[in-house]
Structures are given as structure tokens and as C-alpha cells.
Amino acid sequence: MLRAKRITCVGAGPAGLYLAALLKKRAPELDIEVVERNRAGETFGFGVVFSDATMHHLAAADPETHQAITSSFWHWDDIDTYWKGTRRRSTGHGFAGVSRKRLLEILAGRCRELGVSLRFGEEVTDLDALDAECDLLVGADGAASLVRARWAEAFAPTVDERPNRFVWLGTTYPFDAFTFYFKENAHGLFRVHAYRYEPGLSTFIVECTDETFAAAGLSVHDEERTVAYISELFREELGGHPLQRNRSIWRRFPTISNERWHDGKRVLIGDAVHTAHFSVGSGTKLAMEDAIALADCLHEGGTLKEQLDSYEQRRRADVAAVQRAAQQSLEWFEHVERYREMAPVEFEFSMLTRSLRVTHEGLKQRDPALVRELDAWFAKRAADATGRDVPADTPPMFTPLRLRELVLENRVVVSPMCQYSANDGRIDDWHLVHLGSRAVGGAGLIVTEMTDVSPEGRITPGCAGMYLPEHVTAWRRVTEFVHEHSYGKLAMQLAHAGRKGATKRMWDGMDMPLDTEAWPIASSSPIPYLPVSQVPRELTRADMVLVRDDFVRAAEMADEAGFDMLELHFAHGYLLACFLSPLTNRREDEYGGAVENRLRFPLEVFDAVRARWPAHKPISVRISATDWVHGGNDGDTAVVIARTLHAHGCDILDVSAGQTVREQRPKYGRLFQTPFSDRVRHEVGIPTMTVGAISSYADVNSILAAGRADLCMLARAHLFDPYWTRHAAYEQGHRLPWPKQYASLEKYTHRFK
Fold this sequence. Notes:
Elements: E1 6-10, H1 14-26, E2 31-36, E3 47-51, H2 52-61, H3 63-70, E4 74-76, E5 79-83, E6 86-90, E7 95-99, H4 100-114, E8 117-120, H5 127-132, E9 136-139, H6 146-150, H7 152-155, E10 157-161, E11 165-171, E12 178-185, E13 188-198, E14 201-208, H8 210-215, H9 223-233, H10 235-238, E15 243-245, E16 254-258, E17 266-268, H11 283-297, H12 304-334, H13 344-352, H14 360-366, H15 368-386, E18 401-403, E19 406-408, E20 412-414, H16 429-440, E21 445-447, E22 451-452, H17 469-485, E23 489-495, H18 506-509, E24 522-523, E25 537-538, H19 541-560, E26 565-570, H20 575-580, H21 595-598, H22 600-612, E27 619-624, H23 635-647, E28 652-656, H24 674-684, E29 688-690, H25 697-705, E30 711-714, H26 716-720, H27 724-731
Parallel strand pairs: 1-2, 1-9, 2-8, 5-12, 9-17, 20-21, 20-30, 21-23, 22-23, 23-26, 24-25, 26-27, 27-28, 28-29, 29-30
Antiparallel strand pairs: 3-7, 4-7, 5-6, 10-16, 11-14, 11-15, 12-13, 13-14, 18-19
Helix pairs in contact: 1-4, 1-11, 2-3, 2-11, 3-4, 11-12, 14-15, 16-17, 19-22, 23-24
């Protein structure tokens, strides 16, 4: 039931016009008007993009509008990528372009046909008066929304203005594919997003960094200078066709989100409430899908507030997913310079999968020839690095990797997972089965749970340790089993819990202090993790020497126990991580202050361990690439830390994030930590392992083939399925050798249904 009888839409973009048409179609008695400052036919931009999937939603909502839009489409399936003097074409993508002006004409025409009042050329000078005259005010007035600004306290917007510059231009050049140019001159690297949207007309968006913009001497508002410069730069690519301008000024893209989408009387849709970067072509899609959802919800039962609540709840998750993908995409374009060393096929794949929504498996369905070429290139590189015979059709995840003299048989890693089942640090049969089964399950590398270098370095009474002679014996049972019955290699993760120590087991109250028998804890500064936590003692220089020596002793014991690799834990708010983060290190001596000083003690530990760990065996370090808190460590700091560790002999970095302080605000989502690994790997030039919400073999192959990491770590996926790697191999038609005890499986055909 429609509670709002009089509705005013501010803004005649796709969101406002489409909403008005949908509402009027379903309820002709509605008094609905659209108010727009520009005159009819005036619009910014050239073409807009729709995917084939998006059009299904529009077909169901209003077939007449759908038919009119699709009849104006220019379709293409191909994406061209120009990189290092080569053109690479990928096919099977299914997109269409349409003139923005034509789209708005279609929507405005549909509104007139249905009886919507369209008030073009009216500057809104009194929003309060407009608001008072209607039951529902819809802010459909774009990224610079007046409605959002007027009631900002109610909507609580966040606007993240990105650093790159971009400009919208047009051209008569007839692109026959969605085209990306990456071209460098003396001023820097320029990116172009170009596509045809109707016969003889194409969009030509140019993007560059602020540094390149300044070096080129370009001006924000000087359209003539912009057209002249870009025309000359891309003279060969444009083939004599001119560039056109239409309010073609240089902008920064604003990523917009709002804590609330409505206040019970006013509601935001489209770019007014959320934006998605043009590199994923989803802004118009989101706007029109908002309109569909809001129109549907306004015809449901309940009060107007309940209807608006339903709209917001229905759309938030989908919009958040698109915005996450768009954010990954725009950040990829912001940092193309870091990929300069990539081979063309790798660069193309990285670009196509930049949003993390397109996967190796998905692209194999769209463009099998591209994936065959990519896999062959990846396999040859692995073969050259390891001296192994790697067939050209080997999935990236099943290629070997060399770290010093250690060769891993594949790129799948069982991530460290605390079991809280040790007794005074001594592991038992649970750990043998836990780690052994995952080695038999096919993973190339199995990393032990966080193993503490001293009794006072434990998180809980149930944490594993490497500080007593019997610990070596217990761990040797695990390494001998793994080495005898699998091709997997074992790494021990060594750590000291610091201020997170002396707490209860996970199932008894994670991070909560022990009620009895708690041991004293220490950290970089006397700052408790929780208000109820024990206050740690600030480490003295003498304490640091003892901790350093504990790490060295534990490393020597790990070698004695037969481990193939070592990982030092510099992340997640444990002792060495607390030295690294300014949120937990408030020291005023030589171990506090600038990041170089905060690195001093963790680096001392690393150097001491590296000196005593066998030279032929690799060492990894796990870092938190961000603290997820303003004022804490961030990506820039992570690069400094990574570069320093690399220079000191670290072989591979395990790039994680967060868990430094309880007030962190993580940005969760699928593969949410992979971009940190990507950045560190390319800016520092060190191999990386990535973690965080990786669950499918499609994700693993995509990450590796795009150069975002060298190894992929999975935790919960391996808890759920110890044989995850073998199942992934089976589904991809890749043969893995079984232990001789399971030889009968060679002739077994599994059926999943």
C-alpha cells in the first residue's frame, strides 16, 4: 500500500526518472514530479555501459523501457588491452553501451507517457519548501546531492575523494571493443577507458596520477588545453579522429557512502547515496536497480518508514558488494605504475580480474584461449625457477615454488590455526592428526599454529610451545609423519603473545584474562589490550635480550625437530607487532617514535634468528599491513617494513592485517586482504603469501595468475575440508599422487551428487 501519495524527485538522472516512471506505472493516481536544474536534453558525459546481466532486471521491471533502451544499444563482447606496445584481445564479456543523452530521453519520454510531471530548467533554491509540499522527497540528484547536503546529519555521508585525475571526452573513432590504453610519455603514465556507445561515437575517458597531471602542465578547467594535449598524445590511436568535449574538466572520483539512506521522510538513491567507479561501469546500473527496489518497497505494506527501511535493507548488501569491487578496480587503476614489470599476458589478466569478481575459472568459460596461454606462461616461469617439468596446462595453484633450496610442490598453504590443546606448550596426538591430515590432503605447505618461544609468551594455557626439550620430540613426530607420508613441507610459526597473553582458551572467552594462574605479561608499552586485561610491563633492554634469545633458541629447536621453514610472527598485536605499531608503542627511547625506530627490536630478533637458522632454509615474516585504525600502521608503513625485512634476508612475507587493537574497523569481504599482498609484492619486489576469505580454487588461481601473491593461505576452508587441495585438483582434472596406502583411489571416480 502506497503511504506516500505526493512524491518529489530532485534530479532527472537515470535514478530519478526511472523511479518516477515505475511508480506512476503501478499507481497512476500518484502525484509525482521530477525537478531538474538542467534543461531537457542537457547532460554531462557521453556513453554509459550495461552488462547483459543488468538488463534482465530492467526487463522485468518495465518491458517498454527495456525495449527502448536495448534497441539503442551498441553491443560488444571483446576487451582490448594495449600494454608495452602490444594489443591483447579477450572475448566473451557481454556488454553494451548507450548514449547517456539517449538513455535520458527514453526515460523522460516514458515519464511523460505515464503522466509524470517533469520540471526541467528549475534551480532548486528552497529545498525546505519543496520538502514541505510532498509526502516523500527523493534525493536523486547525483554525487553533488543537495538533498544529502541539506540533511547531512540524518544521512551521515562519507565522501572519499580519490587521488587520481580523470576527464570525460568523446570521439568519432569507431572502437570495436571496450578498449584500455596504457601509454607513457615523459610526464608519466596515462590510462584510457574507451568504448563505442552508438555508431560513430565513443566515450574516451583519460586518467592519470596527480604527479603526471602536474608534470604535463594540464589545467583543471582548461578544456582546450586538455583536448590539444590528449589529441597529440593519442594521435596514432585515434587515427585522425577528433576528440570532443562536454564539460570535460579534470575531476577526482568521489567514493560516496551513507550511514543511513533515509530519515523516514526523505530518501536517497543512485549516486546521491553511493557511487561506483566508472571502471566497473556500475553507477547507472546501481541507480536503476535502486529505483526498482524503492518502487517495489513503496508498494509493500507497513508505514512509510517501514517501506523505506525495507528498501535500504534490500539494497545495502548488493550495493556494498559492488562498491567493494569498484574500490578494488579503481585502486588498481590508481596504481598501474606498480605493474610496469608485468608481461603483457599477466598484465591483461591482472587488469581483467582487478575487481576480484572475475576469476580464473570464470574467464576460462568466457575466453579459454586466453587462459590456456596464461597458464602455459605461468607454468614455464615456474619450471624455469625450479628446474622442474611443469606441463603447460597445469593450473597456477599446482605449479612449484622455490624459496632458497626449498621447493614447494604447489602454491596452497594451510594457514596457522591455534588449537589451544597443548599442555605446557607440549603438543599431542590431536596436533599430529590435525597437521598430518592436511598434509596428506595435498597442501604444499603446512604452517603450524602460533608456537610460543617461552611459557610467558603463550596466549593461553593451551598454546603450543617450543621452549622445552620434550617439545622438540613431540614436534618431530609431526615432521616425520608429514615427510614420510606426503610431499608437503612444514613451517613453524614462532611468536610471543606480549600483551595478549595469559588469556582464556577461545571457547572459554577469547581475549579474556585468566581468572586464576595468570602469568605476568609484557609489551612495548604498558597499554592493556582490553580495559579488563592485565596491564603489561614495559620491556626493558635486558628483557629484550631475553626475548631475542628465546626466539633464537626456539628456531634452533625447530631445525632440530625437522622443520623445512620458519615464520616469525610480527602481526596481530602480539609482542613484536606491538613494537611496530604506533598505537601500541608509546616509547620515548630508541625503540619508539618513527617507524625505523619501531622496527629496531623486531629487526634485531629477525637478524639473530636468520643468523642461526640454516642458510638453505627460508624464513617468512607475518605482518599486519594495516591496523584498520586512523593513526595506526597503513599500507605505506607496510611497504617500509617489508622493504627493510627483504633487505635483511626475509624470503617471503605473509601479508595479513589488523588485530592490533580492539577498536579496529576492518573492511571485510571476499579476498579482502589480497590487495595488501599485491601492493607489497610489486612495490618491494618480495614474494608474498596472502590470506583472508579465500575459499575456492578459482580464487587461488586468480590471485596467483594475476601476480597478487605467490602462495595462498587458507584456514577455515582447511578446517572444513582437510583434503581441500586434492578436491580442487580433482575438479580441475589435475592429477595429484596419492600415498601408497590410498593407491586404490587411482581408479575411483567420485560423484558429487
